């Protein structure tokens, strides 16, 4: 018989389950929690529970080059990752932003964006888990997907303050809520 188990006692383990939470002290940014969203042979995927910083996706209103050519992609690798504790930093395989598919699945609005093949995180099916804070206030936050050129050459997807899907200009400031893979 399979039972739903909720962990209420804190303990050290290397065996993670979806929904498990860790605390990550980011030098110069503070202490944040991150929750396991997915477990594969590749590793364990964590998503920060709140926004770490706010910034523009690009310095001008263009989505040319997509997320890979964005200010945030460079910032995650060059600035944020080095602030992780050394014992965790050495286990991070990849740090990025979530995709539209991971947060919302592939609904009708998804058709406006560059495609991804990602399944929705089970925890993101509940809108309350998509709402997060920055400095004590609800905050919108960026996703990796640029809008298709026939829709707009300016925008990227983001999650609104109330946890809904939308898009906006790349030079507008939204929150950064990173996800990162840890080696198993």
Coarse morphology: globular
How many individual β-strands? 12
Radius of gyration: 16 Å
- The end-to-end span amounts to 27 Å
Total helical segments: 3
Structure description:
There is one protein chain. Helices cover 10% and strands 34% of the residues. The protein has 184 residues and is mainly beta. The strands form 4 sheets. It has a 5-stranded antiparallel beta sheet. It is globular, with a radius of gyration of 16 Å. The two termini are 27 Å apart.
Give the tags.
single chain; 184 residues; mainly beta; 5-stranded antiparallel beta sheet; 3-stranded antiparallel beta sheet; 3 helices; globular
Helix and strand layout, with pairings?
Elements: E1 21-26, E2 30-39, E3 43-48, E4 53-56, H1 71-80, H2 86-89, E5 92-96, H3 100-104, E6 132-134, E7 137-139, E8 141-146, E9 155-159, E10 165-169, E11 173-176, E12 179-183
Antiparallel strand pairs: 1-2, 2-3, 3-12, 4-11, 5-12, 6-7, 8-9, 9-10
């Amino acid at each position: 018989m399979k039972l739903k188990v909720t962990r209420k006692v804190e303990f050290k383990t290397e065996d993670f389950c979806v929904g498990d939470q860790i605390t990550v002290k980011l030098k110069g940014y503070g202490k944040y929690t991150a929750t396991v969203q997915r477990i594969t042979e590749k590793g364990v995927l964590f998503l920060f529970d709140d926004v770490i910083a706010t910034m523009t996706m690009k310095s001008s209103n263009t989505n040319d080059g997509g997320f890979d050519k964005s200010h945030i992609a460079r910032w995650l690798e060059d600035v944020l990752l080095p602030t992780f504790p050394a014992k965790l930093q050495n286990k991070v395989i990849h740090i990025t932003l979530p995709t539209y598919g991971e947060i919302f699945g592939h609904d009708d609005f998804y058709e406006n964006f560059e495609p991804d093949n990602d399944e929705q995180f089970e925890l993101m099916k509940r809108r309350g888990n998509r709402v997060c804070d920055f400095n004590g206030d609800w905050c919108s936050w960026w996703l990796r997907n640029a809008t298709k050129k026939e829709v707009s050459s300016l925008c990227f997807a983001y999650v609104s303050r109330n946890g809904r899907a939308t898009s906006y200009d790349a030079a507008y400031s939204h929150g950064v809520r990173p996800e990162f893979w840890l080696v198993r």
